[in-house]
Structures are given as C-alpha cells and as structure tokens.
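input
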Amino acid sequence: MKIIADENIPFVKECFSSVGNCLTVHGRKITREILKDADVLLVRTITKVDKNLLEDTKVKFVATATIGFEHVDVNYLADKNIGFSSAPGSNANSVAEYIVSALLNLADKYEFDISKKTIGIVGVGNVGSKVEKKARALGMKVILNDPPLKRQTNDEKYRPVEEILDCDIVTLHVPLTYEGIDKTYHLADEKFFKSLKKGVIFCNSCRGKVHDTAALKNAITAGKIKACVLDVWEKEPNIDIELLKILDYGTPHIAGYSYDGKVSGMIMIYDAFCKHFAIKPKFNINNFLPPSQIERIIINENEGKPLSAAVNMLYDIKRDDAKLRQIIEEPAERRIAYFDSLRKNYHVRREFQNTFVSIKDERLKKIFSGLGFKTV
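output
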C-alpha cells in the first residue's frame, strides 16, 4: 500500500510505515502526478483535496490531521466512494491554551483584571467549549453564541449575537462555511465590528476568511477595537502586512500546534485508516508523546502575576508574535516561504496537563486546575 502524507504531520512516517510505503511531501507540493499510484492521502490544511487533485488516481482513502476540513471536497470523495476522516477535537485544547496566553498577556500589557471582564465566545464546539471552561476558571463572565447548537438543543445558555456585541472580549471559534443561514464567511464584517462596544478585544483563531480584513483594519485604526489577536489570515499564507503591524499579537496559524494536539490528530487519522482497511492498530498516542520538558512549576505566592508567569513558561504568545513580525523585513517574494517555515519548524510546545503546579493558595490552585494544570 502506498501512502502520501504531508511531511508536517508529526511521526506520520514512523506510524504509517508499519502498514505501507509512506512517502512524506511538503503539503503545497502534493500533486496529481505524485498521487498517480497512491492508495492513501494524508494532509493538513494547506493541501486542497478535490477532483483536480484526485481524478485518475488510485486513492481510496483521504484523511486530514486537522479539526477543520473545508480544504477537502467531501462530496467528491463520497461520489467516488473514497473513504474520509478528519481529527475533530484533536487540537481544541491547544487553541484554548493559546487564547489563555493571549488574554493573560493582554491583561499584563493593558493592566486590567481579567476576572472582571466579559468574554463572548462565538462557536461553542470542541474549541469554544474548552475556551469557555478556561475562561470560567479565570473568573470571567462568559456569553455563548452558537445558532446551530441553539436550534438543536433549545438551550438558553446559547445567547443571541446581540449579547455578544456588548462583551469586553470577543473570540471566534466557528468552522468556515459559505452558504446557509449560518454562513461564517465574513461573519465579522463591517457591520459586525461597528456593532461591537468601543474598546473591545477581538480574537480570531479559527479561519482567516471568517473576518473581513479591510473591515478589521478599519475597526482597529478607528479605535473601535482596543486590542486584536490573530492566528489566521484571510489570504494565508500571503498575509496582510499592514494588518500585522497594527495587531497586538499575530501568529502564523499555530494556535492548534501543540505537540500533544498534532500527535493526537495523527493518531486519530491512523485509527480511522486502520478501521477503513480492517487493520489492527499497532500504535497509540503514548507511543509518540515524550515527557514534558517542564514537569513541575513551583509558584512563588508573593509573585505579582503567578498565572501569566506559569502559563508563559509553557506557552508565551509573544514568542510566536515576535517570530512572525520578522516577516515584515523579508522581501515580498520570500514572505510566503517564511510564513510556511514558521509552521513547518514550529517548536515543541506541550499542553498544560503535562505539568504539575506546586501551590498552597487554594484559590489559585483552583484556577490552575481549571486551566488544565495538575496541581499539588
């Protein structure tokens, strides 16, 4: 069995070589010619999988090691009886931890008490629900907006978008869709931004096309948005340099790039592959996750900002922001390659649950536990 895989899926060769001949390729260089005699295709978000790529190939199974799959024409796969799997929820916790780092660093930068803020979460699926849990752990008032879930459950906890507009912080966690009553393409458009309260903090870590770039820039320069955090870009990887310059934190679509999340995504598509071809799985996630480099953090309770200090030891959004800003100095023709290199060569980032926090203060211990740390 011949398997073509995006080289940016960690351990994919080590894992899938046990069931076939696994060849790894840069995601943007996967072509129909390469797939001519392949049986399986494993991708991430940068590979567009459709008729143009798969026609006249032998591919029988496609999987994306990501939670979203708008880059895959699932209708075409179904018509051709090609198996498909994604990795829902695999990096949800990673994205939620990214938001925690962003908000705690903004609280330090602008000197506000995060527990006094209201956060509006648009989209309460795998990611949004984890952001909700961590926001509540930080003492924030949480407003949830998810029209599809509201219709499915009739649960009053899902509030109208009008209530989101009055929040201090708005963060987007929706899939990218182009049609229907829940269309999310340019969900955050000029009307949306004008409706927000003045001085709002805006975050988008789902998909770049969910916000309208021109409208977002106008909202920032007009002072409607006080602080902005972006991990995703409308014309990615050809990102808007003007927008980057006026953000508080900009990152190269790595919110979900924790090592735990990426390995989890790989194992999820491996399990789906094994099920599709009736193969007994040989590996699980524990075969690939090493011990955390930071196994224990001892909190000095006299320290002024113990939460951000501990979080930044594991993930400091300012580090990724600084690296992305170096793209400004790159010649225009090299910027796409630079953006891709940041993703391909991303550092090993472990999630909070791998680290013990030693702390006596019961209030802080509860917060750390709610964020996902182990506490002692």
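quick obs: The mean pLDDT is 96.
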